[in-house]
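Protein in question passed on here:
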Amino acid sequence: MTNTIQELFNRKSIRVYTDREISAEKREAILLSAMNAPTEGNQQLYTIIDIQDQDLKNRMAIVCDNQPFIATGKLVLVFCADCKKWYEAFGYAGADPKLPGVGDLMIAVSDANIAAQNAVVAAESLGIGSCYIGDVMENCEQIRECLELPKYVFPAAMLVFGYPTEQQKNRIKPERHKLSDIVCIDEYKEKNEAELKAMFSKNCENKGYEEWMKAFCTRKYNSDFCVEMTRSVAEYLKDFER
């Protein structure tokens, strides 16, 4: 197994950091690694917002579902799917571009997330931990105000970086599913009730399947933040609907 593959296996979300700063050289290496990610047609359909102002970090920690550790991050990046730059550049060239649609947004979101994962892998290789913040898609109006996001720009992912504490280094990574649970050959294969129960049973610990699944559904899928995320994403999508 190569070092890169081993680091992918070892990597877990890190939410507690030491006071050690990330050097300018390592910050640049992480950002350049992100920018060297695969991208549709070499368009790099994203903009990376490097949040350096502490007051803005503090505000983002509150807006992103009250997660104080965001404010302690030594590097905080928001990866925005950006359909604005190319659309306007086409217009400046007299190319008569169509208005950005949901397909364009989906491609840009893919570009942004691939770049974000490159940043995660680069940071891991440098001994720097990271945590994705999906809540950046919530509270559309407040996020737009915080980051001054214009029309056709969508906050696809947020990453917080820092050197992990010893406790975080030693924390056991949550177990992933088996290969056969995730990989289908040649076509999508629906799972029946027994197969789904077997797939998720490892999560149930000492609880029964029904008890654990109902609690998880309440805590995550039916939660207030998930409902708000759906509302916020729908608000962003209005810019792309035709």
The chain is about 50% helix and 10% strand. The first helix runs from residue 3 to 10. The domain at 3-176 is CATH 3.40.109.10 (NADH Oxidase). The chain has a mean pLDDT of 96.
